[in-house]
Amino acid sequence: MPRFGFFAISVSIFKKATKTHSHIITMLCQNEMNQNEQLVAEIFGDYGLVAQKIPECDEKSPDFLIQDKGRRYLVELKTKYDSPEIVEEREAALEKPGIYEHHSVLQRTNTMSGIVGDAYEQLKASKKKHNAHECYLFLLAAEPYAHDKYIQFYNTIYGIKLIICLGNSAPLPRYCFYYSFCDFFRYRDIIDGAIISTGRTLRFCLNTFSNAYNSADGNSLAKYFPKYADPMRFEEGGTAYIMNTDIDRRDTEALNAYLEQKYNLERVTQGDFPSITIESRMKLEDD
Question: The pTM is what?
Fold first, then answer.
């Protein structure tokens, strides 16, 4: 299976007298969930929406209720951090001269799928109670390596694979939606979409399998997010493939044959991007 690279270089510069911190401004504090909730409320506010915090209770419950033009939306907030082992390893390495390398693969993961499943249960338990029209999952991808988490979550909800055609006249590689197991399909009865953010970048993602996608007044939140993700629109624009078939997602040979027939392609194969981040920390002497 071919893999292509995503490569990033980070350099931290600090004065000697300054306490050492990550070079990235960490907006998401693991011990202060209220800070994360405040950040999400501010993000919605930037898009002209008021996110009301739902009080905590003993029962499963989402985090926010948004009301807009007679429609009610539930939003469950999830935050993805790196494991304590990775954080400790990285910090220990950056305290020393040299570089630190972090490797990951930008593909669907069971960890991200578990986050979606947990959000599904919380939204499902509260949709009727709050008389909600639609339900959304908001994922905050925490630093470091927020970009990796962002892409992994995106690939998980949409079951994305990169499609490469071999040969001299082959088209440029494109992403294929629903190629692998897709959590949007699995939880289509409740989850109408997702919002992914690193605190700096944001993407609103439509679930094309939900009832809201095909209803006249459904997915009305999308109008607040100009660059929302809609796989059907991507396919119509010739920038993506769609795997709309019941073929077993473990049968890659049959899946590739389906794409070859549907899009008149030759020698189709699929791949994932590895991500390599190289970091170094430098301390500057006071003048």
Answer: 0.84
